[in-house]
Amino acid sequence: MDFSAIIPALPGLADGLWMTLKLMALGVLGGVVLGTLLALLRLSPNRLLASFAATYVNYFRSIPLLLVITWFYFAVPFILRWITGEDTPVGAFASCLVAFVMFEAAYFCEIVRAGIQAIPRGQMGAASALGMSYAQSMRLIILPQAFRKMTPLLLQQSIILFQDTSLVYTVGLMDFLNAARSRGDIIGQAHEFLIFAGLVYFTLSFAASQLVKHLQKRLAV
Amino acid sequence: MNYNWDWGIFFKSTGIGSEIYLDWFVTGLGWTIAIALAGWVIALLLGTLLGVLRTVPNRWLAGLASAYVEIFRNVPLLVQLFLWYFLVPDLLPEPLEIWFKQDLAPATSAYLSVVLCLGLFTAARVCEQVRTGIQALPSGQIAAGYAMGFRLPQIYREVLLPQALRIVIPPLTSEFLNIFKNSSVASLIGLMELLAQTKQTAEFSANLFEAFTLATLIYFTLNMGLMLLMRAVEKQVAVPGLIAVGGK
Amino acid sequence: MISIQNVNKWYGDFQVLSDCSTEVKKGEVVVVCGPSGSGKSTLIKCVNALEPFQQGDILVDATSIADKKTDLPKLRSRVGMVFQHFELFPHLSITENLCIAQVKVLGRSKAEAREKGLALLERVGLAAHAHKHPGQLSGGQQQRVAIARALAMDPVVMLFDEPTSALDPEMVNEVLDVMVQLANEGMTMMCVTHEMGFARKVADRVIFMDAGKIVEDCPKEAFFGDLSARSERAQQFLAKILQH
């Protein structure tokens, strides 16, 4: 084993890591927004909307992420063509991001829903009593409290997403893992690069999860 | 990019032998189930053992189990799979390495790698659930076990585990479902499980929407079926007067 | 039967037991009482080594607890213990609860264990519930099963750690009745309890503890006879308990 070849490859690996982090950040952002929306639908008194959201969540939670990534990679160009009527080139990045957002939204939805349900019912009553509309109560009173409580869970899910971004390997997107694999293959040191990739993932993920644990303890007091 | 819908595609010939596309899905589902079940056996046995170790009054053993969990939880599944499939065989003693790389059929060596990988990966998660279950039991149960003259292993076997494993059936169910979903990574080392067969169908037939719809349906049904199965198990092992089960 | 010799125990800097010494002779019934936090439960748990202690020794039937060579599980199998929260094993049926340690610890045959268990269940008046699970019984019934479970091991001494304090008031007597019966049969018993009626009826001696120390250790007649001869703390405690 000779790890010295990794040093000249670092800039390329950094590009890969940047791609991974970009996918994670945008995936979390989109996932939380869509997930919150779904959670509000699931909790809405409108049965049709609630069951739509429930079906969405059950659907995405029962299929593998890898299937979603693969499918979207094939399907997004078709769908866009049907919508716009012309060939729109879509990169792997865009299709992967859509896949992550839609898939993770199902998981974020459940976290947000549990967070909202953990807020005592009296809070909603108090907000209404002050003359707030349903939307105002949610936006100003319920959601801020709920988000504070579920921050550790949201962060934990984000760490899972950070690891799951490596699945874009299947569509050839140059994320961190793929960058390491391809560089290692080219110079015939696949093992060293793979071990290095594993160590980097472990370090980042472990550090982040320790931070979340720390935060959880502070919030619990 | 004109799309020709054809839901009858699954009954058409693949052009390879006398196979129809549906045969591919059946084969793929077979692999998926074979991976998940074998991996689950490893995960359940090793995970329970690790969960026990995390709770024993011995810092070294508890620390060892804890380190295992952190390592296997913080490295992406796909990286772990590549390590098992590409790296570990090279580290084996030569006769084993030759056996693994040359004597085994490619599908078999990929299968062994993915089963081991998923089993060890999922064991870390099972460990955490089992640990939570054990810690949820009243501490008086351990005292009562000791007071009757049990030794620690007996307390775990006769008192703690039978109760803890019952409590953690719901979270274990979701890990059980996860291992089926996670088995799709096998497609990335060339094992023709369900997702790989779906991709192949999409590429061969150009009917990708139909192919992926069927795959989704199969995963969805599998998920539902396993969930019902686990609920039945939960009901079967429920203790009268202890835990209310099954939404009655 | 039990000889507690200068036992000291600390949780970190906090001393929970200081220099406790007493004896329980064969066939004797000793009641241990005292305010909560006085260390009485800790002391009784030291007797079968459920709680470790740092100094002193306890001899049970001439076997030392502090001796590292002592086989503690074997010793514990000869000491019956009844807990405040019963601690029946909820996943096992009543019969299984009665049999499990007989089979796994004493190595009795299943049939022998079952016969013994059912006889004891009969004795505590619960034979009809043999097939049920603990969760299906009332608290008082569960505690009677717990006593039977301890007796099934043919213990040389029985320890009771507040056996009635987790019970609804109407169930206290059914448990005390079993304990009185046991005392009358000559069982050696050490009971942590606030049930002074029980103490008056069957105790040979009463021990009063406060702040980790054994403050009073005297025959029942003396303990309840002349209150003015008791320590101030004991008088305060008894005044609170005996008022109702």
Automatic annotation (TrEMBL), chain A:
GO terms for biological process: amino acid transport. One of its GO terms (molecular function) is transmembrane transporter activity. The keyword Transcription regulation does not apply. InterPro entries: AA_ABC_transptr_permease_3TM, ArtM/GltK/GlnP/TcyL/YhdX-like, MetI-like, MetI-like_sf. The chain crosses the membrane at residues 24-43, 63-84, 90-112, 124-142, 154-172, 193-212. SUPFAM superfamilies: MetI-like (SSF161098). GO terms for cellular component: ATP-binding cassette (ABC) transporter complex. CDD domains: TM_PBP2 (cd06261). Residues 17-212 form the ABC transmembrane type-1 domain. Pfam families: BPD_transp_1. NCBIfam families: HEQRo_perm_3TM (TIGR01726). Part of the ABC transporter complex GltIJKL involved in glutamate and aspartate uptake. Probably responsible for the translocation of the substrate across the membrane. The complex is composed of two ATP-binding proteins (GltL), two transmembrane proteins (GltJ and GltK) and a solute-binding protein (GltI). Belongs to the binding-protein-dependent transport system permease family. HisMQ subfamily. This is Glutamate/aspartate import permease protein GltK. It comes from Pseudomonas borbori.
From TrEMBL, chain B:
GO terms for biological process: amino acid transport. Keywords: Amino-acid transport, Cell membrane, Membrane, Transmembrane, Transmembrane helix, Transport. The chain crosses the membrane at residues 29-53, 60-87, 107-124, 208-230. It comes from the Bacteria. The keyword Transmembrane helix applies. Residues 29-230 form the ABC transmembrane type-1 domain. Its main location: membrane. The keyword Ribosomal protein does not apply. GO terms for cellular component: ATP-binding cassette (ABC) transporter complex. It is found in: Cell inner membrane; Cell membrane. GO terms for molecular function: transmembrane transporter activity. It is a multi-pass membrane protein. Belongs to the binding-protein-dependent transport system permease family. HisMQ subfamily. This is L-glutamate ABC transporter membrane protein /L-aspartate ABC transporter membrane protein.
From TrEMBL, chain C:
GO terms for molecular function: ABC-type amino acid transporter activity; ATP binding; ATP hydrolysis activity. CDD domains: ABC_HisP_GlnQ. Pfam families: ABC_tran (PF00005). It is a peripheral membrane protein. PROSITE patterns: ABC_TRANSPORTER_1, ABC_TRANSPORTER_2. Signal peptide: none annotated. It comes from the Bacteria. It is found in: Cell inner membrane. Residues 2-236 form the ABC transporter domain. Its main location: membrane. The keyword Mitochondrion does not apply. Keywords: Amino-acid transport, ATP-binding, Cell inner membrane, Cell membrane, Membrane, Nucleotide-binding, Transport. One of its GO terms (cellular component) is plasma membrane. PANTHER family: AMINO ACID IMPORT ATP-BINDING PROTEIN, GLUTAMATE_ASPARTATE IMPORT ATP-BINDING PROTEIN GLTL. Belongs to the ABC transporter superfamily. This is L-glutamate ABC transporter ATP-binding protein /L-aspartate ABC transporter ATP-binding protein. It comes from Pseudomonas borbori.
